[in-house]
């Protein structure tokens, strides 16, 4: 049946493109008939998750017929102790991506401006557009947020600022004293959303203790996730740390059961296995150094990454390099999607995956 002309979607989404995530392994296997695939496209954890998580999920499966507790009280309790923050400051989402959409849904009115880096995680822009708001994109300087220009971009209409630290896709961070000064200078009337999806990969010395700033800055929202270092991307669970009054608004616009039982049980167990997290951070740093060294040998450079991925300047079409790697069974992301057409973004994998990537990249670059 052809839909009636009068049944039209909202004009805010007329020109919106569908978000294209990293290609799933199964899709590449189907399309290219390859069996051996190395996926380094979505900044997932190459070491899976803690074995304790698998046990906890198996145990929780017996409750599959029951809806979860919406507020995830046990998880909230544990995280509150871990982060030394009141439980009423913790909000769980179906991935941290859901919290981005809830924030814009609750706060962005038509015509409101939201400041973000160019380039950064694309979901900020699309959610602001869906709400009828105006994304104000401030170019990065050598891959790093330009905080002075972002402050200067604030107007009467500014409702929200997004800082992605470390930044996806460049992996760069903002120097911590500059970040603190920025937080101090953002007007209290503007929501400052600090996306820290890759926080746990940073060196402790480089990381600003943003959690301790929440008490002083009620307009500050921190976003973190169990999808990356904890290896729970499939289960969709992340959290936001924020003033309870912001949560009151998010609770009005969220689905009742936005985080499921298995995800809550998994996250709870994941928090108990510090060793796994520390080990992953360590292996990631080693893998990242290996990749940087090998890329340098090929004459290639990257933005200074503090995360589990690298944005590599390939000096030619990132789309072509992406396609060439795909034909060899290696999935990365082309930087074109992020506004950097001569780059690719590659996730730091396990050592064997990193070696496969380096070898395949060498072949692709030699062929070109
Ligand atoms: C910067 C950033 N924020 C948020 C997310 C969303 O993560 P999730 O919804 O899995 O928690 C991602 C995922 O790649 C990301 O890179």
Topology:
Layout: H1 25-32, E1 38-39, H2 51-60, H3 73-83, E2 90-93, H4 96-107, E3 113-118, H5 122-130, E4 134-139, H6 147-152, E5 158-164, H7 176-185, E6 191-195, E7 220-225, E8 238-241, H8 244-253, H9 261-272, H10 274-297, E9 301-302, E10 309-313, H11 318-327, E11 330-331, E12 333-334, E13 343-347, H12 351-367
Parallel strand pairs: 1-11, 3-4, 3-5, 5-6, 6-7
Antiparallel strand pairs: 2-8, 7-8, 9-10, 10-13, 12-13
Helix pairs in contact: 2-9, 3-9, 4-5, 4-8, 10-12
Question: Can you describe what's shown?
Answer:
The strands form three sheets. A seven-stranded mixed β-sheet has the order 2-8-7-6-5-3-4, sandwiched between helices. A four-stranded antiparallel β-sheet has the order 9-10-13-12. A two-stranded parallel ribbon has the order 1-11. Helices cover 38% and strands 15% of the residues. The protein has helices spanning 25-32, 51-60, 73-83, 96-107, 122-130, 147-152, 176-185, 244-253, 261-272, 274-297, 318-327, 351-367, and strands at residues 38-39, 90-93, 113-118, 134-139, 158-164, 191-195, 220-225, 238-241, 301-302, 309-313, 330-331, 333-334, 343-347. It contains twelve helices and 13 strands. 45% of the residues are buried. The chain folds into two domains: 22-48 and 275-367, Aspartate Aminotransferase, domain 1, CATH 3.90.1150.10; 51-272, 3-Layer(aba) Sandwich (Aspartate Aminotransferase, domain 2). With 368 residues, it is of the alpha/beta class. Bound molecules: pyridoxal-5'-phosphate.
């Amino acid at each position: 049946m052809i839909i009636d002309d009068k049944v039209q979607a909202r004009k805010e989404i007329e020109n919106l493109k569908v978000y294209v995530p990293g290609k799933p392994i199964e899709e590449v296997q189907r399309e290219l008939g390859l069996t051996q695939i190395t996926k380094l496209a979505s900044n997932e954890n190459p070491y899976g998750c803690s074995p304790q998580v698998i046990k906890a999920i198996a145990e929780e499966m017996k409750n599959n017929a029951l809806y979860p507790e919406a507020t995830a009280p046990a998880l909230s309790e544990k995280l509150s102790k871990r982060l030394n923050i009141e439980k009423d400051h913790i909000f769980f989402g179906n991935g941290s991506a859901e919290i981005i959409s809830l924030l814009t849904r609750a706060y962005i009115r038509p015509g409101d401006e939201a400041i973000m880096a160019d380039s950064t995680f694309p979901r900020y822009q699309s959610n602001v557009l869906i709400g009828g708001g105006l994304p104000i994109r401030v170019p990065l300087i050598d891959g790093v947020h330009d905080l002075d220009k972002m402050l200067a971009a604030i107007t009467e209409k500014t409702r929200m600022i997004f800082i992605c630290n470390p930044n996806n896709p460049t992996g760069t961070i903002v120097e911590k004293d500059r970040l603190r000064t920025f937080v101090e200078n953002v007007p209290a009337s503007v929501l400052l959303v600090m996306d820290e999806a890759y926080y746990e990969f940073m060196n402790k010395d480089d990381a600003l203790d943003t959690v301790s700033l929440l008490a002083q800055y009620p307009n500050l929202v921190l976003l973190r996730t169990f999808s990356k270092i904890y290896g729970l991307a499939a289960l969709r669970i992340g959290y936001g740390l924020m003033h309870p009054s912001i949560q009151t608004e998010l609770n009005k616009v969220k689905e009742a059961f936005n985080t499921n039982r298995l995800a809550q049980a998994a996250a709870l167990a994941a928090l108990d296995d510090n060793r796994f997290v520390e080990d992953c951070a360590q292996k990631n740093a080693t893998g990242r150094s290996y990749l940087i060294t090998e890329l340098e040998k090929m004459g290639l450079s990257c933005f200074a990454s503090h995360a589990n991925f690298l944005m590599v300047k390939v000096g030619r079409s990132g789309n072509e390099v992406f396609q060439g790697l795909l034909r060899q069974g290696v999935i990365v992301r082309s930087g074109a999607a992020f506004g950097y057409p001569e780059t690719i973004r590659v996730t730091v994998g396990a050592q064997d995956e990193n070696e496969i990537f380096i070898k395949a990249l060498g072949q692709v670059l030699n062929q070109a």
